[in-house]
Design a protein that fits this description.
binds adenosine-5'-diphosphate, 5-stranded mixed sheet, alpha+beta, 46% helix, elongated, 22% strand
């Protein structure tokens, strides 16, 4: 559809067409069909015979046709135009508009296209497409109908359309960048998961051998070497627990984690975990208290060890991140058809910007290069994995400098339709 069929358009129609173009940009899902629309609008509103868009191609360092208003000239698409010997090239390199009223006698016009198409370029108006003040292409209108001259109004209209087009191209580029970044992130995440799965699997066997032989040797070496053997065994046990953490995460991610369903009392677990950490807390002059409802066992159906790991990781953090003379409290209570377990501390707290991410694998608030505390940033992600395996939820509220509250909620036994000792797959 070219302007030849429309003749001169009224100014209010101009505004309507430009508004329509803006709306098309806002709802654009394909840049190239939008560029085609742009050329048709540019053609109509400047009352030209043809309009086209050329974009700069970095690989070939030239301009290439990306859209033309008149479909009869579609074969021009992707055709290259040299920067040095064309009007479009000049507009692109100077980033300035150019109007040539008598194109037939102007040496700046690139004649090759006319020859190929059997076309006569009589007048040209070309404006740059600018993104961040740099030219990325050119919008051209060719042959003012009725062979009159292009006016300042024509140029203003073409510049408005070019500004809208640049915006559309910018949006499309940003969208493409986001998609590429997301694909890269997914790829890196998969590589990270593969690495965790392979490393934890491959380390398990040699470590088992080290532990087995070290334990045997400790029995056989004399008193003098027994302490050294103890150091080896303790360090190997620490490595074993890291490998178990990595493997728990890998299994959850691959959907291979399973829980063995058995009844256990959350009240008893809170008492036990509090007992286990009380001495460690006291050594740091931290007061650790616990609170469970009297006469209510708060029965959960699930795998006790896994929930124990979740609660222990949270309590361990509370003790680590609380300064001497602070307090840590553990509380379990019934809330509707759920059991809620709270761990509150008066510690250093977590900056608001980090709260969302502390349950992610390997995430630590302090940089691992400068941090004072040990750990691999896995404790909370394991806690979340274990809680989610039990159809539960976990969250944190915290204020920097004041303290933190971690809470997880698990379905209470009576509310779940489970048969005893059932084994089911997670996820
Ligand atoms: P790590 O084992 O390295 O501590 P976690 O996954 O257990 O890893 O915790 C992630 C990070 O969340 C910690 O490194 C710490 O910065 C922050 N964090 C966790 N619990 C607390 C807490 N109770 N108080 C302050 N910061 C905490």
């Amino acid at each position: 559809m070219s302007s030849e069929k429309f003749g001169v358009t009224h100014p209010s129609q101009h505004l309507k067409r430009i508004l329509e173009l803006s709306r098309n940009i806002a709802s654009m899902d394909d840049l190239y069909s939008l560029l085609n629309k742009v050329t048709v609008v540019a053609c109509d509103l400047t009352n030209s015979q043809e309009a086209s868009i050329l974009l700069y191609d970095r690989t070939s360092s030239d301009l290439r046709f990306q859209a033309v208003a008149d479909h009869k000239r579609q074969k021009l698409l992707k055709t290259s135009i040299p920067l040095e010997t064309s009007v479009a090239g000049r507009v692109f390199t100077t980033a300035m508009p150019l109007v040539i009223q008598d194109a037939e006698n102007d040496p700046r016009v690139f004649r090759e296209i006319d020859r190929r198409l059997g076309f006569r370029t009589l007048s040209i108006m070309a404006v740059p497409l600018l993104v961040d003040q740099a030219a990325i292409g050119v919008l051209e209108a060719i042959n003012k109908n009725d062979e009159s001259n292009y006016t300042e109004d024509d140029l203003a209209i073409l510049e408005i359309i070019a500004a809208q087009t640049s915006l559309a191209i910018r949006i499309a580029n940003l969208e493409r960048n986001i998609q590429e970044s997301n694909a890269n992130i997914r790829n890196l995440d998969r590589m990270k998961s593969d690495f965790i799965a392979i490393a934890s699997h491959e380390l398990r066997t040699p470590l088992g051998l080290i532990l087995g032989h070290a334990t045997f040797l400790k029995e056989t070496v004399g008193e003098g070497l027994s302490d050294q053997m103890e150091v080896i065994i303790r360090s190997a046990m620490r490595l074993k627990s890291i490998i178990e953490d990595l493997s728990a995460i890998a299994q959850k991610e691959e959907g291979l984690a399973r829980i063995r369903s058995n009844e256990f009392s959350m009240s008893a677990m809170v008492e036990e975990v509090a007992g286990r950490f009380r001495e460690i807390a006291a050594a740091k002059k931290i007061h650790l208290s616990h609170d469970v409802p009297e006469g209510d066992t708060l029965t959960i159906d699930g795998e006790r060890e896994k929930i124990d790991v979740a609660l222990s990781n949270i309590v361990q953090n509370a003790v680590i991140f609380t300064d001497p003379n602070g307090q840590v409290g553990i509380k379990a209570e019934r809330a509707g058809d759920k059991v809620k377990v709270f761990v509150v501390d008066t510690g250093i707290g977590i900056p608001a910007a980090d709260i969302e991410r502390i349950f992610d694998r390997f995430y630590q608030v302090e940089s691992h290069l400068t941090r004072k505390h040990g750990g691999m940033g896995l404790g909370l992600s394991i806690a979340r994995a274990m809680v989610e395996l039990h159809d539960g939820e976990i969250w944190c509220e915290s204020r920097e400098g004041t303290g933190s509250l971690f809470c997880f909620a698990l379905p209470i036994k009576s509310s779940r339709d489970m048969t005893a000792a059932r084994v089911f797959t997670a996820d």
